[in-house]
Write a structure and sequence with these properties.
The chain is of the alpha+beta class and about 60 residues long. The protein is built from 3 helices and 3 strands; from the N terminus they run H-E-H-H-E-E. It has a 3-stranded mixed β-sheet. The two termini are about 20 Å apart. The relative contact order is 0.17.
Length: about 60
């Protein structure tokens, strides 16, 4: 998450129109980010997510 914030800060200066996405596997999303605290973090820092299933190599959301 720390590297993501650093990269997003730099990218916002160099290419402010570009969105940065945070890719997370399905299991991590379901176990951590889908609960109340995870949703608070996602909303507070305006995190754009890509959720993927590594077993079938497919983007879910």
């Amino acid at each position: 998450m720390g590297q993501y914030e650093i990269y997003r800060t730099v990218l916002s200066e160099l290419e402010p129109e570009r969105l940065l996405y945070f890719a997370v596997n399905k299991q991590a999303y379901e176990n951590i980010l889908q609960d109340k605290l995870g949703q608070l973090i996602i909303n507070k820092i305006q995190l754009h997510l890509i959720i993927f299933d590594e077993k079938v190599e497919r983007i879910i959301k």
